[in-house]
Amino acid sequence: MVDLHTHSHFSDGDRSPWELVRQAKACGLSGLGLTDHDTLAGGEELFQAGRAFGLPVVLGVEISCSQRDGRQLHLLGYAIPPEGRQAVEDFCRPIRQARNRAVLQSAQALAQAGIRLFPGVQGPADEAVQALLAGTLAYDPDTVCAHHHSGHEEGHTCAHGGENGCQHGSGGA
User: Model's pTM, two decimal places?
Assistant: First the structure.
């Protein structure tokens, strides 16, 4: 059995691509597809994990779309060749930016209503919310990595390009 529709912390999942592959292998799946919303940012990490665990993996994307009548739908794309990945990222960037603006507006409205997004939470999550509300936090793979790095297995390297002890690539291999 193969699961071809999974999401990592690069979109609305809560696990790294590495952890998804590890779990798929542990569950006895014979392959795994990563289809994050509007990004291929987890691709390099997915491929690294697939090699490390001996599990076939497929990089895909779930693109947010609107029909002419305004109904929302998601278009799945699979096995995007390396030479086409930057074009997919460029196409999806405005979609991600629009979603980020909508999230920011919702967070600001909740804050203005006196609703704390993470009541009782101290530390990085609370700081991230404060930065979001101040307009100083934007999506950045390094930020994602920093929040999830502690859950990685020893010897694991994140795959997106930056700080926090991660070894990064350009987001696709």
Answer: 0.68
